[in-house]
Every structure is written in structure tokens, then in C-alpha cells.
Design a protein that fits this description.
- The protein is an alpha/beta fold.
- It contains 14 helices and eight strands.
- Strands 3-4-2-5-1-6-7-8 form an eight-stranded mixed sheet, sandwiched between helices.
- α12 links the parallel β7 and β8.
- α5 crosses α8.
- The N terminus is likely disordered.
């Protein structure tokens, strides 16, 4: 039986110290301070893990990728992972990207499930369980403001409504379809505002489709767009349609700087030339990344990062490094 979610804190209450946290889905750890990434240097844990996986040897390109991945970010950076078509690996990509950033960076990363139709992000990262949702987070913030308070500002308060996988924090979607339909643009913007008070990188696993209200808020607050495709003609066409829709809604800069991720959902693409597919997407946006097939990921169960193949982890490291390359060009928060 899944454990019951902890009750939201009463209005005006102060969050307990980490050692007495009431959220069973969070492993307490000290908060390092907002916007305090590593100054371009490797963390000791990341260095040890990287060397262990490579048998103690690090090549020049691998070292360079790791340094790129750890580029400092001067303000909260918001990445949205999307696709019009479901079943192409969008949630898997959101989860693995978040796990990669949290594994190799010293700052804080959170991934939010903005799917209005009972998304599965939390299940993929935490296993099936009853836990607080992004709606609980937004409701708690609103109640505090209604009583004259500043809302949820303490990171420990915010963590009460999140789960944790490794060092990655997870904001789960509402699982009741009748309620989750009501998660709209205003609530999504509120959730983004709350999370950027405590985290340096916010990754949104958006729902399929481009017309629902929450998607409007997603595009309006996004710094970088990741569009997911699979090596099939229908999936490729829908990925291109996703870019067209984003452009039509008034965000040509997101299309220009987008990263298309082609996730291999079988060991080998059948009936489609991968080089042709990559060249096609390179005519539409700046970067295209191919993620190798991994049986553990495509079984659809809970993701265990260290059990993912080294080739697939490397693909997601390449994706994270490309996204981190853009951090240096981000103007500081005003």
C-alpha cells in the first residue's frame, strides 16, 4: 500500500528542521543557498562517480563535456520538454535530464509535471505512491498570501510539497483526472514562481498538445525548449508540427534555439534513415541529439540512473551540456 501523503502545513506554521521533516519522500539535506552553482569546477562526488564509471580514466572530450555541463547559471533557468505526440519519450527525457543535472551540478534542480492529464513523471522517478502534488504547492502558497504572509519562501517549506529522487526534487501532477483538468496557466505560473525561489534549474514535463491553458504559461516562462521525437515518420512529423505551433504562438526564438531529442525506442530504427532525419531537424532548429536505446528506460518502470546504460547516460549528458552552454549568455536577474 502506498503511504499517505503528509498533510499541508497549517497557515503560518514554520517548517521543521531537516532532521524532523514530515515529508517521507524527501531525504533531508542542507540548502546551499539560491543561485549558488559551482564556479565551473567539478564537485568531489561528481568527479569520483565520473572516474569510477570510466575506470579511473577521463578523456579530453569527456572532461570538456563535464565542464560544460557544470556551467554556472546566474539566475533561475527554465527548460520545457514537450511534444504534441505522446509515447515518444518526453517524460523519460524530462526525468533523465533532471537526474543528469542533479548528479553533476552542485546547485539545485527540480522537475515539474505540468501534464493536465494525470502525468506519470513522479511514478517514473519515485515509484507509484500517494504524495503531495503541484496543486498542493500552489494552494499552500495562496493560503499563506490570503493571511497576509509572503507565501512559500523558505526552501524547507517548499520541499514539504515535493518528492526526491537522488538529489533531484520532483513536483508531481494531480492524479485525479477531474481535478487535474483545472490546472491552468495561472496555477502553472504560480508554481514556476514558487520553484524559482528555491531552485536554479526548473525543468517542465509539459503535457501533449499545445492548446491547453498550462501550455500557454509554459511557453511564456521558458528559457529553452526541448522537443522530443522518435525515429518514426509519424513521430518526426509531429515533432516538426510542435515547432510550427510554438512559432505560431509567438515564440520564434524558442524554435531557433530548440534542441530536438530523438529517443530510440528500439535497438535499431526500421524503415527510416537516421542521418536524413537528423539533417531534416537541423533545418528547423539549432541542435539535434540522438539518445541510444535503453531497455530499462523503455520498460516504463521506475528509473534508476545507475542502471541506465552508459551510452544512454552519455546521450543525456550531451543534452545537458548543450543546454548548459546557454547558461553563460543568460543575463543576471534584476
Amino acid at each position: 500500500m502506498p503511504q499517505q501523503a503528509p498533510a499541508p502545513l497549517p497557515d503560518g506554521a514554520v517548517s521543521p528542521a531537516p532532521s524532523t521533516s514530515v515529508n517521507p519522500y524527501v531525504t533531508p539535506h542542507p540548502y546551499l543557498g539560491q543561485y549558488a552553482p559551482a564556479a565551473g569546477a567539478e564537485t568531489a562526488d561528481a568527479r569520483r562517480g565520473f572516474l569510477r564509471r570510466r575506470g579511473g580514466r577521463v578523456s579530453g572530450p569527456e572532461q570538456q563535456r563535464l565542464v560544460r555541463l557544470q556551467t554556472p547559471v546566474p539566475r533561475p533557468y527554465r527548460i520545457s520538454v514537450t511534444s504534441i505526440k505522446g509515447g515518444v519519450g518526453k517524460t523519460t527525457t524530462s526525468a533523465m535530464l533532471g537526474l543528469t543535472f542533479s548528479r553533476y551540478r552542485a546547485d539545485r534542480t527540480v522537475v515539474i509535471d505540468a501534464n493536465p492529464h494525470a502525468g506519470t513523471l513522479a511514478d517514473r522517478l519515485l515509484g507509484e505512491r500517494v504524495m503531495p502534488t503541484v496543486r498542493d504547492l500552489v494552494t499552500a502558497d495562496r493560503r499563506r498570501r490570503e493571511t497576509g504572509g509572503p507565501g512559500l519562501t523558505d526552501p524547507l517549506q517548499i520541499h514539504q510539497y515535493l518528492g526526491q529522487a537522488d538529489r533531484l526534487m520532483v513536483a508531481a501532477s494531480e492524479q485525479n483526472p477531474e481535478i487535474s483538468e483545472l490546472f491552468d496557466e495561472e496555477q502553472y505560473r504560480t508554481a514556476q514562481d514558487i520553484l524559482t525561489r528555491a531552485f536554479d534549474i526548473v525543468i517542465t514535463d509539459s503535457g501533449t498538445g499545445m492548446k491547453h491553458s498550462a501550455m500557454k504559461g509554459t511557453l511564456a516562462t521558458t528559457d529553452r525548449l526541448v522537443v522530443v521525437a522518435a525515429p518514426r515518420f509519424d513521430a518526426a512529423r509531429r515533432a516538426a508540427k510542435t515547432l510550427d505551433e510554438v512559432h505560431a504562438q509567438g515564440y520564434p526564438h524558442l524554435v531557433r534555439d530548440a534542441v530536438v531529442v530523438i529517443t530510440m525506442d528500439s535497438p535499431k530504427a526500421v524503415g527510416i534513415n537516421m542521418n536524413t532525419l537528423v539533417d531534416y531537424f537541423r533545418q528547423l532548429c539549432t541542435h539535434v541529439i540522438r539518445i541510444p536505446y535503453d531497455q530499462q528506460l523503455y520498460m516504463g518502470g521506475t528509473i534508476h540512473y545507475d542502471q541506465v546504460s552508459s551510452a544512454t547516460r552519455g546521450g543525456y549528458m550531451d543534452l545537458a551540456a548543450i543546454l548548459a552552454d546557454g547558461f553563460a549568455a543568460v543575463p543576471p536577474a534584476r
